[in-house]
């Protein structure tokens, strides 16, 4: 049996093998109350996309600079994201911009590493998965979490190199890890460690 906390929804997820009864599983989960309360207390409150909120774009603080007189188009200006238009749909506009920006940036970096590896990538895309930062299918399609653009550049690029390496090795063998390091030109382990330590905090942003 396994307990997990969904950082986005503060939901407790209980995984139970088929041979275990529901009564026994719920009793076991009840015994984990202290652990559950500790995990829930550790979840940081969500950060709404509202005027003057700060978004860690590339792990660098960017303040949302909103004025109703400005254009609705989002523009990055050094340490700010400037935007206008109606306040009631500000969050939706910013989220669309972030996802579009993530898709463009991750596609460009995927092409860069794919060229270096001498492989093709069928297509790239972004989503908002809970527990995965990237995935590569056997058909050559790669998808990423858009939230990677909230992480440092070296973490994001290590994740891209990881997924591109799966176009050659669909496993996590020593040859696979050696290829990731070769593509990246650096040890990817610090990036994986960063995501383990800090990845859950990226789900705070844009979560109502």
From TrEMBL:
CDD domains linked to this entry = M48_yhfN_like
Listed InterPro entries: UTP_pyrophosphatase-like, YgjP-like_metallopeptidase
Q: What Gene3D superfamilies would the database entry show?
A: Metalloproteases ('zincins'), catalytic domain
Domain of life of the organism encoding this protein: Bacteria
What residue stretches are annotated with the YgjP-like metallopeptidase domain? 2-197
Give the signal peptide as a residue range, or say none if absent: none
Q: Which PANTHER family match?
A: UNCHARACTERIZED PROTEIN YGJP, UTP PYROPHOSPHATASE
Q: What is this protein called?
A: YgjP-like metallopeptidase domain-containing protein
Species: Sphingosinicella rhizophila
Output the lineage of the source organism: Bacteria, Pseudomonadati, Pseudomonadota, Alphaproteobacteria, Sphingomonadales
């Amino acid at each position: 049996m396994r307990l997990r906390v969904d950082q986005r929804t503060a939901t407790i997820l209980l995984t139970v093998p088929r041979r275990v009864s529901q009564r026994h599983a719920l009793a076991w989960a009840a015994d984990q109350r202290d652990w559950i309360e500790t995990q829930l207390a550790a979840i940081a409150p969500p950060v709404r996309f509202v005027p003057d909120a700060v978004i860690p774009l590339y792990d660098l603080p960017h303040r949302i600079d909103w004025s109703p007189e400005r254009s609705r188009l989002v523009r990055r200006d050094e340490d700010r994201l400037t935007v206008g238009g109606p306040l009631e749909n500000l969050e939706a506009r910013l989220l669309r911009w972030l996802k579009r920006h993530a898709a463009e940036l991750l596609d460009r970096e995927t092409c860069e590493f794919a060229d270096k590896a001498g492989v093709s990538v069928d297509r790239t895309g972004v989503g908002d998965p809970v527990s995965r930062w990237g995935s590569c299918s056997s058909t050559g399609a790669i998808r990423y979490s858009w939230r990677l653009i909230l992480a440092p550049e070296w973490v994001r690029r290590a994740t891209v190199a990881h997924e591109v390496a799966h176009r050659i090795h669909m496993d996590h063998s020593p040859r696979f890890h050696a290829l990731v390091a070769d593509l990246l030109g650096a040890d990817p382990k610090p990036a994986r460690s960063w995501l383990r330590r800090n990845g859950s905090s990226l789900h705070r942003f844009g979560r109502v």
